[in-house]
Design goal:
Elements lengths: L3 E5 L2 E6 L14 E6 L6 E3 L4 H17 L4 H23 L11 H5 L2 H12 L5 H12 L9 H8 L5
Antiparallel strand pairs: 1-2, 3-4
C-alpha cells in the first residue's frame, strides 16, 4: 500500500498511511455521519471509546454550566475523536487488540514466546532492530568520535524502545 504526505488538521504526516474514512476489510466503518464535534464540526466516531464518551459528557456539562471550555481541552478532545476515526482503525487492521487486559500482561510477558525474545535481546543486544538503527545513525554521523560526549549520544539512546 503506498504512503503519502497528508495533512491531519494542523499536523503534517509524511510516509504514514492515513485513512480519512477508514473501512476495514470486514467492511466496518468508524464515522458517525449524524453527529459532529461541538468544537470543530468534524464527524465523530461511530462507536466511541468509553474514554471519549466520558470526555464528551464532562465537556457538555461544563459548557452548559460555565459556557466555555479551555482551548487546550478542546484540542485534546478533537485529537481524540480524530484518533478514534483515523488511527485506531489502522491499529485494528494491523492486528492490535481493541482492548488490553492488563491483568494478563504479566503472564504474557512471562510466556515462552516473549521469554525467548527477551533472552535473545539480553544475550545479543546487537541483534535488536533498534540497536542496529542507532548504530547505523552513529556510523553515518560526520564525526563518530563526537559520540564519546554523553550529551550527544543521549538523544539517540532515548530512541531505543523500552
Amino acid at each position: 500500500m503506498p504512503t503519502t504526505t497528508v495533512s491531519l488538521g494542523h499536523t503534517k504526516c509524511a510516509g504514514v498511511l492515513v485513512a480519512d474514512q477508514p473501512i476495514l476489510s470486514s467492511g466496518k466503518t468508524f464515522i458517525n455521519r449524524d453527529k459532529k464535534c461541538m468544537f470543530c464540526e468534524e464527524r465523530l466516531p461511530k462507536d466511541p471509546s468509553p474514554h471519549f464518551l466520558r470526555l464528551s459528557s464532562v465537556f457538555a456539562k461544563r459548557q452548559r454550566a460555565e459556557g466555555a471550555i479551555q482551548w487546550q481541552e478542546r484540542i485534546d478532545y478533537c485529537k481524540r475523536h480524530r484518533a478514534e476515526i483515523r488511527t485506531f482503525p489502522l491499529g485494528l487492521q494491523a492486528g492490535y487488540p481493541a482492548t488490553i487486559d492488563f491483568d494478563q500482561v504479566f503472564e504474557r510477558v512471562r510466556s515462552d514466546v516473549m521469554n525467548k525474545v527477551l533472552i535473545r535481546l539480553i544475550e545479543s543486544p546487537c541483534s535488536s532492530a533498534a540497536y542496529k538503527s542507532c548504530a547505523a545513525e552513529i556510523a553515518a554521523a560526520p564525526n563518530p568520535r563526537k559520540w564519546s560526549d554523553s550529551s550527544s549520544s543521549a538523544k539517540y539512546i532515548r530512541k531505543i524502545p523500552g
